[in-house]
Amino acid sequence: MNNKSVQPHLFQPLIVRSVRLRNRIGVSPMCQYSSDDGAATDWHLVHLGARAVGGAGLIIAEATAVSPEGRITPGDAGIWADKHIEPIARINRFLRQHGAVPGIQLAHAGRKASSARPWEGHNHLADNAGGWPTLAPSPLPFGGELPKAPRAMTEADIARVQNEFVAGTRRALSAGCEWLELHSAHGYLSHEFLSPLTNHRTDRYGGSYDNRVRFLLETTRAVRAVWPERLPLAVRLSCTDWTPGGWDIEQSIELARRLKAEGVDLIDCSSGGLLSDVRIPTAPSYQVPFAERIRRETGILTAAVGLITSPVNADEIVRNGRADVVLLGREFLREPYWPLHAAQNLGHTTLASSPNQYARAW
Ligand code: FNR
Ligand code: 536
Questions:
Q1: Ligand 1: centre distance to CA 357 (Å)
Q2: What angle do CA 57, 61, 63 make, to 5 degrees?
Q3: Per the count of CB atoms within 10 A, which of 4, 109, 113, 243 is most buried?
């Protein structure tokens, strides 16, 4: 029997809970540093909207801070106030009209907060130059261009930040987001709790594995309780710190199991970002093995991300069951119409949809 026709591929829809993605291609969350006191702007409408028109199945809006202090830069997106809801809702209506599922990534930058925008140097901002005091599990600076020492969080700080994630979740729901991702990667707050290299706590949030994963598991449970059962919940992990003695893929696999038990549907598999001086062996699809192992060993859905640029490679990842979704970052910045061109390249011409306005272009 020829099983090829039933094999999932890049243009096969994916249903997660009550949400249907028209294909397996997602826009990876990417900070635009273009918000107005946290509020999305016309930039976001055009940036995200173009990629919905371009055929993406899922669009995950950038790291969106649950509190002002959780922003990486003053230009970061935020969701700490009700005034942030309508600008996101406006964008989400447009994304849905053009067939994409609107998602959002909730974040707190921990010790990497209070930085300048990348095009303004990316260094930590002094408190008298638009910066603010930072928080982390332990008072260890990132170093290099981010020298500021964070204040170690008290248990009251931890409870407050967790409540801020819950409040952000409620606002994301009000704004019509249909896919929620918790940012627990790239050296930001939640990742700082996970890794023994940044978490030197001696209370119940540090030390043992169970203690280091407690912040994320508790946050996930609180978020899942207010995020409707019909909607998917994802978590982005840095699956390894690429450093001996740090967080690694074995710990990520066990965490994925526990997150699945808390109602998480998909692990978005990234890596790195915790430390300033680590060499990462980047190459095309270099993080796919993390998505593949977590998927195979836990049965949870996964997203692969990182230097995936060619349609053939993206399709291979889905066909061979290495991940359920592929997320593209920089390639989507270069080419908003990537899904439409990929459909043509892979011979799925009937699936290559385009807006009526552009119908003669394809
Ligand atoms: C990113 N990345 C990122 N990751 C994340 O989890 N939240 C974010 O807000 C951002 N912001 C961001 C901004 C910009 C300008 C870039 C280039 C990247 C990481 C991104 O989502 C992705 O994981 C990496 O870029 C690797 O994928 P690509 O770019 O190789 O496809
Ligand atoms: C890439 N970046 C991730 C960001 C914003 C800055 C750029 C984020 O997650 N908010 C990155 C990828 C992998 C590791 C570290 C940083």
A1: 30
A2: 140
A3: 113
The ranges of the chain with pLDDT < 70 are 1-7, 350-353, 362
CB of 105 closer than 6 angstroms to any ligand 1 atom = yes
H/E stretch holding 106: strand 101-107
| CATH T-level fold of 10-348 | TIM Barrel (3.20.20)
Dump the DSSP string for 34-103. --BTTB--HHHHHHHHHHHHTT-SEEEEEEEESSGGG-SSTT-EE-SSGGGHHHHHHHHHHHHHTTPEEE
Q: What integer pLDDT is reported at residue 6 of this predicted model?
A: 56
Point out the residues that are catalytic.
Answer: 188
Give the Cα separation of 127 and 37 in Å (integer): 17
Report the first-to-last Cα separation within the chain, whole angstroms.
35
Output the CA–CA distances (angstroms, integers) from residue 166 to 93, 149, 176, 206, 355, in the order listed. Answer: 23, 27, 16, 22, 36
Is residue 211 exposed (0-12), middle (13-18) or buried (19+ Cβ within 10 Å)?
A: middle
Tens-digit pLDDT profile for residues 160-211 = 999 999 999 999 999 999 999 999 999 999 999 999 999 999 999 999 999 9
- The domain ranges of the chain are 10-348
Query: What pLDDT, on a 0 to 100 scale, did the predictor assign at position 2?
Result: 44
3-state DSSP call for residue 164?
Answer: helix
Which residues, 6+ apart, have CB-to-CB distance to 319 below 8 Å? 7, 8, 9, 10
pLDDT at residue 362, as a whole number: 64
The residue length of the chain stands at 362
CA of 303 to the centre of ligand 2 (A): 16
